[in-house]
Automatic annotation (TrEMBL):
SUPFAM superfamilies: Dehydroquinate synthase-like (SSF56796). Belongs to the iron-containing alcohol dehydrogenase family. Residues 11-154 form the Alcohol dehydrogenase iron-type/glycerol dehydrogenase GldA domain. Residues 166-346 form the Fe-containing alcohol dehydrogenase-like C-terminal domain. Pfam families: ADH_Fe_C, Fe-ADH. Keywords: NAD, Oxidoreductase. GO terms for molecular function: alcohol dehydrogenase (NAD+) activity; maleylacetate reductase activity; metal ion binding. It is an enzyme of class 1 (oxidoreductase). Its EC number is 1.3.1.32. It comes from the Bacteria. This is Maleylacetate reductase.
């Protein structure tokens, strides 16, 4: 075998451990800042205010309107608030929506970011930013948006509802599965992808049974970090393209869409990338598509796109949008094959 690859690690500082978020003030100072703006969604407003209070003089305020898919008007309002308060860093506490807002602020202001993730989405370790304006979602990659410090504290995920833990965990597994057959995959990203999937495979059933199990929560968050890291390092293909289409054009919820599509997209690509996807079969059992489907079912994931409110007519348009621009994928795609795949996912049938 001739081994040949390029690899670039991330410069981000990763801090992991139970209680680690209590030391956020130290990290504000370590990055040379002293006036943090704390970001959350409205749902996590109270947690953001408590964090700002615990930072004392190191926090200048909060902004609690982070919104899914990073609408540009929300970002502009948050940038105005950061400017008005003289903030010199942002602390984003929450899931991918809040992290996205921090990244969008950094893109426009270069303010350093400390992210404290509370879901398994993985955005905190990527230089990818999706933004929406006038109903259109566009995605960019820029080193400017990569957070400087990520503090993973499993204690903050103990209350993540089971249903969200499951779909968010499957969202993370999707990053790892697609990383295995990425055209720019390398031995390190594959190691991280396999370890990340294995950690989530072991942790999610325990979380479903006992949501406050600290060891399982730590293992899931560790898996999410690994899966997010590979999302940030290699190119994504069919699965992410379809989920982006469904979320961007049909407003389907992010994590649920990933969870439902995953067995179908990976089952589809397994025909052409069987060797690369072999670890998925080993970890989940059976063929990659069926193994993921049975696992998703066993942890109570939603399985059918029709349950997200999509109609069969939407599938025609989704297949057309998802095949409009070419991108790398191990198995050649055309509109008819993607339409058939979407039909299976809409019905929630067991993939081949
Ligand atoms: P989210 O951030 O929208 O969170 C969903 C809801 O759950 C929010 O109301 C949030 O406040 C709440 N929540 C989060 N953590 C909680 C907790 N521990 N306990 C209770 N409630 C909690 O959902 P998400 O799936 O994490 O993120 C989705 C967004 O992230 C999408 O916009 C997606 O495009 C983006 N994303 C981006 C990347 C990237 O690399 N750019 C990667 C993954 C996801």
């Amino acid at each position: 075998m001739s081994l040949s690859f390029t690899y670039q690690g991330s410069p981000a500082q990763i801090v992991f451990g139970s209680g680690a978020s209590k030391r956020v003030g130290e990290w504000v100072e370590k990055i040379g800042a002293s006036r943090a703006l704390v970001l959350t969604t409205s749902h996590q407003k109270a947690e953001g205010e408590a964090l700002a209070a615990s930072l004392g003089k190191l926090a200048v305020g909060t902004y609690a309107d982070a919104t899914m898919h990073t609408p540009v008007d929300v970002t502009e309002e948050a940038v105005a608030r950061a400017t008005e308060l003289g903030a010199d860093c942002v602390v984003a506490l929450g899931g991918g929506s809040t992290t996205g807002l921090g990244k969008a602020i950094a893109l426009r202001t270069d303010l350093p970011q400390i992210v404290i993730p509370t879901t398994y989405a993985g955005s905190e370790v990527t230089s990818i930013l999706g933004q929406t304006e006038n109903g259109e979602k566009t995605t960019l990659r820029s080193p400017r948006v990569l957070p400087e410090v990520v503090i993973y504290d499993p204690d903050l995920t103990l209350g993540l509802p089971v249903a969200m833990s499951v779909t968010s965990g499957l969202n993370a597994i999707a990053h790892a599965a697609e990383a295995l057959y990425a055209p720019d995959a390398n031995p390190i990203t594959s190691l991280m992808a396999i370890e990340g999937m294995r950690a989530l495979k072991e942790a999610l059933p325990v979380i479903v049974a006992t949501p406050t199990d600290g060891d399982a929560r730590a293992k899931a968050l560790y898996g999410a970090w690994l899966c997010g890291t590979v999302l940030g390092q290699v190119a994504m293909s069919l699965h992410h393209k379809i989920c982006h289409t469904l979320g961007g054009s049909f407003d389907t919820p992010h994590a649920e869409t990933h969870a439902i599509m995953l067995p179908h997209t990976i089952g589809f690509n397994a025909e052409a990338a069987g060797d690369a996807l072999a670890p998925v079969g080993e970890i989940f059992g059976g063929t990659p598509g069926q193994g993921l489907y049975e696992f998703a079912k066993s942890v109570g994931s939603p399985l059918a796109l029709k349950d997200l409110g999509l109609t069969e007519a939407d599938l025609d348009r989704a297949a057309e949008i998802a095949t409009r621009n070419p991108y790398a994928n191990p198995r050649p795609i055309d509109q008819a094959s993607i339409r058939a795949l979407l039909q299976d996912a809409w019905e929630g049938s067991r993939p081949p």
